[in-house]
Specification:
This protein is mainly beta. It has a single domain, classed as Jelly Rolls. It is 10% helix and 41% strand. The protein has a 6-stranded antiparallel beta sheet with strand order 1-2-10-7-12-5, with no helix packed on it. The radius of gyration is 16 Å and the shape is globular. The termini are far apart. The model has no long low-confidence stretch (mean pLDDT 92). One of its GO terms (molecular function) is dTDP-4-dehydrorhamnose 3,5-epimerase activity. One of its GO terms (cellular component) is cytosol. Belongs to the dTDP-4-dehydrorhamnose 3,5-epimerase family.
Length: 172
């Protein structure tokens, strides 16, 4: 596992080793000790399957750390720092395939767009799910996220997320 720091403090890009074999490949997606070294004690593993490309979710910042990795397909990921401080609103984007993962600390927003059909996305978290979260508009001009596809599908719930400016006012 190769770990790189990103421009957003605490967000780590992780390259996992894919071991090709006659049938496809194998990867060690979860290793307790290696994740503990990153400061993550996994309590829940969630898997989401997306049939088509262009499905978008987010931007959600939950009160838990996340370890994100596709086990099939590719995703475009936009990370937004929603923690109080000078980095508030900073955006960084990534494209993840099956050999990639991201470690995203609590209160940092994450969103993704499926780039290929039949994408399976894994979310390991260090707290059990709860409805608590901070959300931001996927298409907020202040964030200027360059979504990679023109035809996007998203939920009504995500369409109603507040802008970064609204979130800033709520916190003032």
């Amino acid at each position: 596992m190769k770990v790189e720091e990103t421009a957003i403090p605490g967000v780590l890009r992780i390259e996992q080793e894919l071991q090709p074999n006659a049938d496809g490949w194998f990867k060690e997606n979860f290793h307790r000790e290696k994740l503990a070294e990153l400061g993550m004690d996994v309590v829940q593993h969630n898997v989401a399957y997306f049939e088509t490309a262009g499905i978008v979710r987010g931007i959600h910042a939950e009160p838990w750390d996340k370890y994100l990795s596709p086990s099939s397909g590719r995703v475009f990921v936009a990370i937004v720092d929603l923690r109080s401080g000078h980095g508030f609103g900073q955006v960084e984007t990534f494209e993840l395939g099956t050999s990639d993962a991201l470690y995203v600390p609590r209160d940092v927003g994450n969103s993704f767009c499926t780039l290929t059909p039949h994408t399976t996305y894994n979310f390991l978290v260090n707290e059990h799910w709860s409805p608590e979260r901070t959300t931001v508009d996927l298409f907020d001009p202040e964030l200027a996220i360059a979504w990679p596809l023109e035809q996007l599908k998203y939920t009504e719930r995500d369409a109603g997320n507040p802008s970064l400016a609204e979130l800033r006012r709520q916190r003032a």
